[in-house]
## 1
Amino acid sequence: MAATTMFHALSPDMASLEQYQWKKRPVIIFAPSEQDADYVRQMAILKQSQSALAERDIIVLSDTSPAARGQLRTRLRPGGFEVLLVGKDGGIKRRQNRPVLSGDLLATIDSMPMRKANLR
């Protein structure tokens, strides 16, 4: 999986993550701008762990434009910077308002029943 296919801007008209259900684990990053310090740090953390993330079927979706009033931003109501991990079942598995370390993200994923089943 090429690294460039893992990172995507979240389209303002995307209303659901249904297209990823049972295929990918979206990590959604909401930030006030691309220059936001937490956003820059989070992207650097994720880019350093690309192969481990790809192995776990991660796709990273970023929304750095609150003014665009994206449908998912409106529905999920992030407060400033926020990171969400969505499982393959579509449920939110982790949500926090500071950058997530790769080890913490990978541990959360590795504890999921579907991931454990894939490793067997």
## 2
Amino acid sequence: MTAPVRVALIGAGTMGSHHARVIAQSPRAELALLVDPRQAVGTEVAERFGAEWAPELPDLAEIDAVVVAAATEAHYELAVRVLNDDTALLIEKPVADSLAKTREIVALAETRDLPLVCGLLERYNPAVMTARALIEHPLHITAARHSPYAPRIRTGVAWDLLVHDVDLAINLIGSAPTSVESRLGYFHPDSAESAEDVAETLLGFGDGAIAQVSASRIGQRKIRQLSINEAERLIEVDLLRRDVTVYHHVSENLVDEGRGYRQQTVIEIPELVTSQEPLTTQFSHFLDLVEGTSDAAAERATILPPHEVIDAAIAKTGRG
């Protein structure tokens, strides 16, 4: 029997606690170490999931993989340290607090041929995975990710929300966009001056496909909608409810001497390919990379395109 992958987790906040639970529950891994400078917080999470606690990252000689769920500003230094120790890395988005640093981290992982995963969790949403298995030739994608205002989130919506649907559009269409147009809105009085509250982005692709992606944190309800239009089908995805509906228009006819019309549409509701929690699916994929049963180079290649789009979307507004 293969020994469990020994994992060190950095960060015991909300996301870190979820990672700790998923790692501890995995039969293929062991949560060996939890790193957090706050002793009370770190020891509480470590004890809950049977791990050792440390205030800072120690020598990694006994560690097979690291998960980083720390503050974004700490990502660069931690990632470079972990990769230079030839250790596989799963790091929350964004990979670093600048595109230049993100490129450096990806290049370092490539040079050392190490698994590197960015926590773009919607890739592993069961509804998204089901839609991906269905699509054939997407032409037009629209996505809306709207939420009520959350004072605890100090970054703008581009990195907090928009990046997820930009990543989905790129992965569903199958290539990086060739053009990026964006408008950002700064509305909420409690937001930091450089933190946008609304982001509207239009992506153009080399094959002519278009993606229109919308993110907002001044909504009055939580919306997570994705629509994928093909020439003969519409695939609608509700990422909150985790369901998929496929529409195929058959015919439309005038009735009652032009006073109405009759539309015929075939509606399909496919069975989800999985019901597993996205964080668990993501971690299982990470373990496949660590164990060498999945393609680490292919995974690394998916990281930069969404980061480049968000960087361009912010830069083109002249503010941020």
## 3
Amino acid sequence: MHITYDRENDTAYVYLVAHIADGAAARQVVVDGIGADADVILDVDAEGRLLGIELIGARSALPAELLEQSSSAG
């Protein structure tokens, strides 16, 4: 698992696999109920396996310590 965090846009991505090839995420599922200020999108491959999790408004959904330890996106 690997996490990237874009501080400027307050978005984080949690990679559940080592690499996600272009087009591998065949479907995106939006999850409600995480928090008022966070949107969560699950990236799923054609076989239904979860590849990664995108969090928009990450500061409201993830612990600050986790975001501080993540690598910068960009």
